[in-house]
Amino acid sequence: MTTGDDDGPLVVPLSRLAGRVCVVTGSTGMAAAAAARFAAEGASVFATSRTEAHLRDLVAGLVARGAPAGYAVADLEDEGQVEAAIGTAVERFGRIDGLFSVAGGSGRRFGDGPIHELTAEGWDRTLDLNLRTQALVARAVVRRMLAQPGGEDGRRGAILLMSSALSTDPVPELFATHAYAAAKGAINALTTTMAAYYAPHGIRVNALAPSLVRTPMSRRAASDPVTSAFARRKMPLAPDFVDPDEVAAAAAFLLSDESRSVTGQLLKIDGGWSVTSAIAEDPGS
């Protein structure tokens, strides 16, 4: 994939999402990379998050490159605002074919940590940010998908939720955020149960589980020498952190017809995180 500079056109040798309408939650990092990728592959893109400045910049960039795009500002923890945002997407584009639910974040600032230190507020706020948001958005989108006609093959759409490597492959010495891991583990279960229930209705549901990705959320980890050294050993296929464009490419695949028989799956995009030991230093060090 070639994205060019800020003023150049997006160039992708694929058009797997041509004619599709894709909703993305979030407006920076992986969400921004995914929105750009979806647009470059022919989709109309609708973004929603709580930060209007980021949304405005993201959508303006897509429109400048010729992509149909829109946005709605919404606090995704608020049921009414979620319903209104998804309703606006349908009003604008007529239907929803794909959802990539990215928005979330660290709960450290709320008191997330090891459970013996975890505050009740930290638990609630972290789950609201990473689980409630995704459940409310998925609910709103699935309702619209069920109400819209399917294609010739009966398929109505695809849902892609955001999990984390920490839900299956913890690193307690560096990332002891138990509420965050629990929220992402619940996303894994939600993915499986939704996939099972909605498969007969022509709706696929999958999830991505990235490790450390180069995003605004990972700046603290990236600036810490111990964490950076750990990441180099733990993710040998990602010399730095994982590039958000790699996550976007996987998302485009899972929302396209190339994955039309794939549902209920958790795809790890982790540079080797889940299969690599990081206890020892690099050979020769």
Label this structure with key terms.
285 residues, alpha/beta, Rossmann fold, seven-stranded parallel β-sheet, 8 helices, 7 strands, 13% strand, globular, disordered N terminus
Low-confidence sequence ranges: 1-5
Number of H- or I-type helical stretches: 8
Number of strands: 7
Cα shape: globular
Mean pLDDT: 91
Q: What number of domains?
A: 1
For the terminal residues, how far apart are their CA atoms? 35 Å
Question: Which strand order does the major sheet show?
Answer: 3-2-1-4-5-6-7
Residue fraction in strands:
5-15%
Which architecture per CATH? 3-Layer(aba) Sandwich
Just give the CATH class: Alpha Beta
Determine Rg (CA atoms, Å). 18 Å
The CATH topology assignment is: Rossmann fold
> What percentage of residues falls in helices of 4 or more residues?
40-55%
Q: Order of SSEs, N→C?
A: EHEHEHEHEHEHHHE
The main sheet comes to: 7 strands, parallel
| Annotated CATH homologous superfamily | NAD(P)-binding Rossmann-like Domain
Structural class: alpha/beta
Question: Can you describe this structure?
Answer:
- The chain contains eight helices and seven strands.
- It is α/β, with parallel strands linked by helices and 285 residues long.
- Helix 5 links the parallel strand 5 and strand 6.
- Helix 3 runs parallel beside helix 4 and helix 4 runs parallel beside helix 5.
- The radius of gyration is 18 Å and the shape is globular.
- The N terminus is likely disordered.
